[in-house]
Automatic annotation (TrEMBL):
Transmembrane regions listed in the UniProt entry: 22-40, 52-70, 90-109, 121-141, 147-168, 288-309, 315-332, 377-399
Keywords: Membrane, Transmembrane, Transmembrane helix
Domain of life: Bacteria
Classification via InterPro entries: ArsP_2
Listed name of the protein: Manganese transporter
Native source species: Vibrio paucivorans
One Pfam match: ArsP_2
């Protein structure tokens, strides 16, 4: 038997060298499916994946679609573009406003622009300071007046923080040297990409093309505490299971879009064609961010589940330590812990001082791509956001809560 010929016939996703799995990202959807199948983890996994899709992925996709459509305008010369690109002060202001938008899409945009060299370090600190992530939706839905005040305060503190950082650091402070890859054309050369990768990339675009509007509508209704199942007269867990299955589908498509050769290719986004449709670009960015969000959500929820942690009782009655608690949780990546703090505030378990320090220290899901692509900058920026969070949290505590 000719073993060499037998080896050549192996699937493309298996490397011929030591039978190395070329698409290591496939481990993520495989693990997700295993958690869904296992009875002990099924309920918490379904809830977590559903939250990740409706509360994060849908908003990120919608925001990034708008961004990629606007990028056509941003690439043209205009007064607004000149202010953003050439004025460090206005760049910080624009970044703070983008970060204050509910959800993490605006913060993710500025984070990726910093890594690519289109925004400075001051803008990165400003957007991470002003963003409240997905917790903003919960606060706006439950206490709109307080929500708008917290968001406005985030913009002001974000601007001040970014301007101070601009006085201390240059725009390229801690920016990593990203390997420049020649822009791809959409007509792939033979052998450049496998048919499997090409099909997966195209399916990502088709997936979000058809789901972008309905997914955003469901996400907005859910954020404002509308029971979509009851509204559409569906079984009680329909939307939850739909979100979980759509999350797994996103991860499966994402896992097949890039052959993994090293750590950088594992954690980085896939290269996009310069002439790709805005929805296609938004789809690739969204699935990349969603992968990090899902991993973080599951790590947090499964730890809480198996550790039998009652966080409401754990944080209740800490008195003077409450703003510090809000700050500590705010420095954790992702929106899950921040939504928890906001839920505790709404229920009366924690005071507004803890909510304020958490809102300013909270970097949301934008921290995941920052950690993946510029870990040193992400660490320093997170520390910088902690300083104004301490000032605001304890300032409110001593002025109004003692």
């Amino acid at each position: 038997m000719d073993f060499a010929r037998t080896a050549v016939s192996l699937p493309s996703w298996l490397s011929l060298s030591q039978f190395r799995l070329a698409y290591k990202r496939l481990l993520l959807p495989v693990i997700l499916i295993a958690l869904l199948v296992a009875p002990i983890t099924r309920e918490v996994t379904v809830a977590t994946l559903s939250d990740a899709f409706w509360a994060v992925s849908s908003y990120v996709a919608f925001t990034l679609a708008i961004y990629h459509y606007l990028s056509v305008f941003m690439n043209k010369q205009s007064r607004v573009v000149d202010l953003y690109q050439n004025s460090r002060g206005y760049q910080v202001m624009f970044a703070s406003i983008l970060g204050a938008l509910p959800g993490c899409g605006g913060a993710i945009i500025v984070t990726t622009q910093y890594v690519s060299g289109r925004a400075g370090f001051g803008a990165l600190v400003a957007v991470l300071t002003s963003t409240m992530g997905d917790a903003a939706f919960l606060l706006l839905a439950s206490q709109p007046e307080t929500g708008f005040v917290v968001i406005a305060l985030g913009v002001v503190v974000g601007c001040l923080s970014g301007w101070v950082v601009n006085l201390v650091h240059k725009d390229d402070f801690l920016r990593p040297e990203i390997k420049k890859v020649a822009p791809q054309v959409c007509q792939h050369k033979e052998g450049a990409k496998s048919s499997l990768e090409t099909n997966a990339i195209n399916l990502q675009g088709a997936f979000w093309k058809w789901l972008l509007v309905p997914a955003t509508i469901v996400a907005v209704l859910g954020s404002f505490q509308v029971d979509v199942n009851e509204l559409l007269q569906l079984p009680a867990t329909s939307i939850k299971w739909t979100g979980a299955l759509l999350s797994v589908t996103c991860m499966l498509l994402w896992a097949l879009t890039q052959e993994i050769k090293d750590y950088e290719s594992t954690v980085s986004e896939d290269a996009k064609c310069v002439s790709s449709h805005p929805i296609q670009k938004a789809a690739q960015d969204t699935n990349f961010v969603s992968a990090w969000v899902i991993v973080a959500f599951l790590a947090f929820e499964l730890t809480t589940f198996f550790g039998q942690l009652d966080l409401a009782n754990l944080f209740n009655g800490w008195g003077i330590w409450m703003p510090l608690m809000g700050l500590a949780v705010g420095m954790l990546p992702g929106c899950g812990p921040q939504i928890l703090v906001t839920s505790l505030y709404i229920s009366g378990a924690v005071p507004l001082s803890a909510q304020l320090s958490n809102a300013i220290a909270n970097d949301g899901d934008a921290l995941f791509p920052a950690i993946a692509l510029a870990p040193k900058a992400a660490l320093v920026a997170t520390i910088y956001t902690a300083l104004p969070a301490l000032l605001v949290g304890y300032g409110y505590y001593y002025l109004f809560e003692i």
